[in-house]
Write a structure and sequence with these properties.
heterodimer, A: 453 residues, alpha/beta, Anaerobic Ribonucleotide-triphosphate Reductase Large Chain, twelve-stranded mixed beta sheet, two-stranded antiparallel sheet, globular, B: 89 residues, alpha+beta, Alpha-Beta Plaits, four-stranded antiparallel beta sheet, 3 helices, 4 strands, 38% strand
Chain lengths: 453, 89
């Protein structure tokens, strides 16, 4: 046989027992050619274009899943930031844009559509502020639309007026979706250094510099990495790094194969492969448990940041070797409510908000899916965003905040979002006020990129 | 198109017979076959050529899975490329 038996067995075991899957196939669609001074015309074009390009996305994904025998969990769509597309329209009816995206997503059968987004890292255009103020309503009136706002970059600094606005938007979204544990906030990401080709929700959008349409793939596999590490218990840490790298290589190759096949069948160019260890609330699919397998009693213990840094770096190295098309975020995600190990670590008191913040300086994104008390002040949320953006801007990395001030809930309660979004105990945030800092507004200047220490 | 068929479960009489019967009925040629005990499981792997196949891939997959249910083992069929890409540079 051209393949060794043990290799075949290993692949089958990864899929059957260790939750290896393709997490998402995301079709990026440019909406630049749908811009029109008539909002109504623009929205008709948006709908037609999505329906035309993505009509076979779900079916193709399902066919490939059957043929290769590897689960493809989500099929999604990302579009050009709507703040750009809607800026020229006469009616400025942003909610109508959200609704048309929702309708198209429902009809082609994707579970999320990303791109109800604005890029304001330096400043706002005339229409950006109105658009950002519409986000909370848009999230509460749609089911599948995801939103993101980029508030900072290493080139431009941090737009503190936008940071201030986002604290209020998050609180509003929490209130408007209060009957579902404020789930609106789970579909809203505040970025610094946002990337144009991220296939993962809720932060996916199709960047301005991207092509007409593209297929991006997000691969996952925390369970596979954990199993690989179980075989090297007690060995030096460089063996751990090597082992993660090799595993990441294999996962990436599977993802690239699937991505290219989807691209060929849909006749849409293959974009990037995002190799992110994206956990789910299922047992055996947790990034927190990988960190514990490396030698920590619980995720959040001292040493967690170092272990996560190693994990994140080794995943990237394995992925880069395996494919020339690695992009997006690629690393390890640490979304609390979506990770069984992290949920437990929070419950046991091992993992705190502050430790999570430290971990985000070395993970692939940021403070993700963290439930906090519903009565948290909006300026405190803005200050959390400012801290996280600063970590990204200074360190030239993407950071994000997806935080849920769960309406009516407090410490000791649990918020439940359902499905892949999972559930989370409410975590404590600082009781001290950041209001005067946030209320200043303005812009934090871009950092110097020399004299690094 | 080539595919790898894996059979995992408890050893018993007639596994190869039942799988090859389905393949013969659908004009699928077996190019290679091996069986072994791996991590306490009986495992059989077949490399099959599907270029003359009479039904579509999903139909064959369903029939094989059903056959597996009947004889109490797990039978999977996957396109060969997934294994090639993961394990060969």
């Amino acid at each position: 046989m051209t393949l060794y038996n043990k290799n075949i067995f290993e692949t089958v075991r990864m899929i059957e027992k260790e939750n290896l899957d393709i997490r998402t196939i995301t079709m990026g669609i440019s909406l630049l050619d749908t811009i029109d001074s008539s909002g109504k015309k623009a929205r008709t074009r948006i709908y037609d274009k999505i329906m035309h390009l993505a009509k076979d996305l779900v079916k193709t994904g399902n066919d490939i899943e059957d043929e290769f025998g590897i689960p493809i969990i989500n099929k999604r769509i990302s579009v050009t930031p709507i703040s750009v597309i809607a800026a020229a329209s006469d009616d400025k009816d942003y909610i109508a844009y959200a609704k048309i995206l929702d309708k198209a997503a429902r009809e082609v059968g994707v579970n999320f559509i990303g791109g109800y987004s604005a890029l304001v890292q330096k400043d706002f255009t005339d229409s950006d502020k109105g658009f950002i103020n519409s986000i909370a309503q848009a999230l509460s009136q749609t089911e599948r639309v995801c939103s993101s706002v980029n508030v900072g970059s290493s080139k431009a600094g941090i737009n503190m007026d936008a940071v201030k606005m986002m604290g209020k938007v998050i609180k509003d979204a929490a209130y408007l979706t209060r009957d579902q544990d404020s789930i609106g906030c789970a579909k809203l990401v505040v970025f610094a250094n946002a990337v144009d080709d991220n296939p993962f929700m809720a932060g996916a959008f199709h960047g301005i510099g991207e092509g007409e349409a593209v297929v991006n793939v997000g691969v996952s596999g925390p369970g596979v990495v954990k199993s690989a590490l179980e075989k090297v218990k007690g060995q030096p840490i460089n063996v751990v790094a090597e082992n993660i790298k090799k595993t990441a290589f294999k996962i990436t190759r599977a993802g690239e194969l699937v991505g290219r096949e989807v691209s060929k069948r849909l006749n849409v160019p293959f974009g990037i492969l995002d190799l992110s260890l994206a956990p789910t609330p299922e047992i055996g699919d947790s990034v927190g448990r990988i960190l514990e397998e490396i030698g920590l009693e619980a995720c959040g213990a001292h040493g967690t940041t170092a272990a996560l840094a190693l994990l994140n770096d080794a995943v990237k190295k394995g992925g880069i070797m395996a494919s020339s098309s690695v992009g997006g975020l690629s690393g390890a995600f640490i979304p609390v409510s979506e990770d069984e190990g992290m949920i437990n670590a929070v419950k046991s008191g091992a993992l705190t908000f502050d430790k999570l913040e430290a971990m985000t300086s070395v993970c692939s994104v940021g403070l993700d899916m963290i439930a906090i008390p519903g009565n948290t002040d909006e300026t405190t949320i803005s200050a959390i965003i400012a801290d996280e953006a600063a970590i990204g801007v200074i360190n030239n990395k993407t950071t994000a905040v997806r935080i849920i001030p769960v309406y009516g809930k407090d410490l000791g309660d649990t918020a439940s979002f359902g499905g892949l979004l999972g559930y989370a105990p409410i975590m404590a945030v600082s009781k001290f006020s950041s209001a005067d800092f946030i209320n200043r507004g303005g812009r934090i200047p871009a950092p110097i990129h020399s004299f690094k220490n | 198109m080539k595919a790898i068929i894996t059979v995992i479960g408890k050893d018993k009489v007639g596994i190869i017979y039942n799988v090859s019967k389905v393949l013969t009925e659908n004009s699928v040629n077996i190019e290679d076959i091996s069986q072994t005990i791996m991590q306490d499981y009986f495992t059989m792997m077949m490399l099959a050529d599907l270029s003359q196949i009479k039904c579509d891939f999903n139909k064959l997959k369903d029939v094989l899975e059903k056959t597996g249910d009947e004889i109490g083992v797990s039978i999977k069929i996957q396109r060969e490329e997934i294994f090639e890409s993961m394990h060969n540079i």
